[in-house]
Amino acid sequence: MFARESKSDILFNIIVTAIALVALLVTFYPLYFITIASISSPEDILSAKVIFKPSGVDFSAYQFIFEDERIWKGYANTILYTVCGTLFGVGVTTLAGYALSRQDLAGRGWLMKVMVFTMFFNGGLIPTYMVVKELNLLNTPFVLMILGSVWVYNIIISKTFFEQTIPKELLEAAFIDGCGNFRFFMSVVLPVSKSVIAVIALFYAVGHWNSYFNALIYVTERKLYPLQLILRDILVQGQTLPAPSDASELEALAEKQRIAEVIKYGVVIVSSLPLLVIYPFLQRFFVKGVMIGSVKG
After folding, report:
1. Torsions phi, psi for 249 (to 5 deg)
2. Is 167 left (phi over 0), alpha (psi -120 to 50) or beta?
C-alpha cells in the first residue's frame, strides 16, 4: 500500500501544478491569440473584441499573404539557408565532436579549452564584419549558411555522446581488422549516433530558421532576404506591400492597408508553422540530446 501524502506534500503538489498551469498559459496564449487574430476582422481586433475567440472570421489576410511574392521568395531563401546551414553545421559538429572524444588526439585538452573560451568571448561585430567583407561574403547566400552554423555547445554534446557510446575496444578491434579512421567514423560511429545527430540538426535548423540578425547586417539585396527579415520589415516598418504604380491600384492598396494588422498576425503563423509541425516529432530526441550533454563520466 502507498503511504498517504502529508499536508506539506499536497501543498507542494498544488503549488507546482499552479506554477505549471501559469507557465502553460503564459506561453500558449500569445500563440493562440495570434492564431485567432489572423482570421478575425481588423475592426474587431482594433476594438479589442478578439480576446478568447475569433470575431468576424475573415481569411482575406492569408489571401494577400499567399499572393505576396516576397513571402514565397523569403520562404525559399530560408529553406535553402536552413537546409544547407544545418547540413554544414551537423557535419562539422559531428567530426569535431568525434575527434575531441578520441584520447589519442594531440592537443585535445588545449583545443577544448580554446573552444570553451569562445563561448564566453568573441571578437565582436565590427571585426566579424571586416572578416566577412575581406572574404567577399557580403551579399551572398553563403554568409547566411556559414555564420552561426557551428556551436561549441553542440560540439560538447556530440563529444560526450561519442565518449559514452563508442567503446575504445570497438575502435581497437576495427583497426586490427584494417579499418581506417574515416571508414570507422562513417560505418560505425554515424549509424549509432542517429539520436544525437537528430537533436543537433534540430538545434541548428531552429537557429537558422529564426535567424534574421546576420541577414540584417551582411545582406542588403532584398532578393537574398530570409523570411524572418521580411517578417521584420512587415512588423517594424509597416511596409506590408509595395506602393501602387498607378491610380487603378489605389482601391486595392486601401483594402490592403485596412487588413495590415491582420496580415502581421498571419505572417507570424505562416513563418512559425513549419517548426511547430516538425518539433513534436523530434521532441524525444531533443530531450535525450540535452540529457546526454549534462551527464559527466
Report:
1. -95, 0
2. beta
Confidence band, pLDDT 50/70/90 cuts, at residue 248: low
Q: What is the 3-state secondary structure (H, E, C) of 8-66?
A: HHHHHHHHHHHHHHHHHHHHHHHHHHHHHHCCCCHHHHHCCCCCCCCCCCCCHHHHHHH
User: Cell triple for residue 153?
Assistant: 555547445
C-alpha closest to that of 224 among 109, 76, 106 = 76
Check: CB of residue 198 under 8 Å from CB of residue 281: no
Which residue reads 506590408 in cell numbers?
A: 240
- Of 279, 283, 234, nearest in space to 259 by CA: 234
d(CA 20, CA 28): 12
185-238: per-residue pLDDT in tens? 888 888 888 878 888 888 888 888 888 888 888 988 888 888 888 877 766 655
Q: Which of 287, 297, 291 is nearest to 157 (CA)?
A: 291
Model confidence pLDDT, tens digit, residues 105-146: 888 888 888 888 888 887 788 888 898 888 888 888 898 888
CA distances from 93 to 89, 130, 150, 199, 275 (A): 6, 25, 6, 12, 22
**277-to-96, 190, 271, 280, 283 alpha-carbon distances in Å:** 30, 26, 12, 7, 11
Closest to 80 measured CA to CA, from 241, 196, 194, 211: 211
Return the residue matching grid coordinates 553545421. 89
User: C-alpha grid cell for residue 149?
Assistant: 552554423
Whole-structure pTM value: 0.75
Residue written as cell 499573404?
Answer: 65
| Euclidean distance between CA atoms 136 and 131, whole angstroms | 9
User: By the 8 A CB rule, do 241 and 68 touch?
Assistant: yes
